[in-house]
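A note on notation is needed here, since sequence and fold are reported together in a single record. The reader may check this reading against the record printed directly beneath this paragraph.
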Amino acid sequence: MNWRVKALCQLGLSIAPLGENANYFAQRYVTHSVPPSDEFLRVLRAAAAEHIDAVNCNLAIPLSQALIYQFGAGWELGLPLMLWALGVDRQILADRRCLVRTELVNHVLNQLGRMSGELELCRQPPRVLESDWERALATLRKYYGIDYRAPQDAASTGLRDGTIDCVVAFNTLEHIPQRELRGILAECRRVLKPDGLMLFRIDYQDHYSYCDESISAYNFLRYSDRTWRFFNPSLHYQNRLRHPDYVAAFQEAGLAVLHQKTIGPTDEDLKQVRGLGLAAGFRRYTVDELAVRGALFVLRPDLHRREELPDS
């Protein structure tokens, strides 16, 4: 699909009554981007392994005892369910809107059962979710250790200070406006234990490139903020922040980077960026900074910096 056509469709759905339901219908029955494929589960398995390795290397308690908080859990709860299948027992999930689709969650649960040997999982799902929402929530809590909370603002969770061992956001931060990011990071720091961890995986690529092979992962760097507004509706929002912007935001929030793993850039990525007509707002970055495709950050509260920051 041409990316401009998709942007126009997403704009219409963003302002239409029940647009979110229509968007789900389109992705399931028109573009067939959901339910997730087996290959997507393999990617999730690798991502979950990275998260677990980071926790095991940097957290003082065993993973089985850790309380994990994830915001931006999405439609199918893929990563939380994969973490459960790999031994995580306690998770709190939050979304600004109630996005979970029980049929997609059940699809993932069936995949985990069918692929458990290939994915080398510790345990298989004992049951799927009921169609009744309250019973589905109860099943998530009882059998999967998942407490799903929505609607919930990630900048105001209601969680107690210093009660979370690990905060996770998986391909979520790139969808948060920069003006809102500071409050969310401050809230994450507030609820995290002093020796806790934050694990943020961020996708810096133009998400329209996933549906339109004629454009590169850097296509959106050609547009000014004013022009990009027309291609950036709420259902497909991308903040276009680059790697140094996140590093600066974490530092401002009083977080120390323990580890960062970047994806790219390759020589071909650098060539693509050099060939772009960059919008003025992106000319202050180096080519290498612009060409990074994504990153995994492992963070911890900088206790010295925390004392210097004003109260959040």
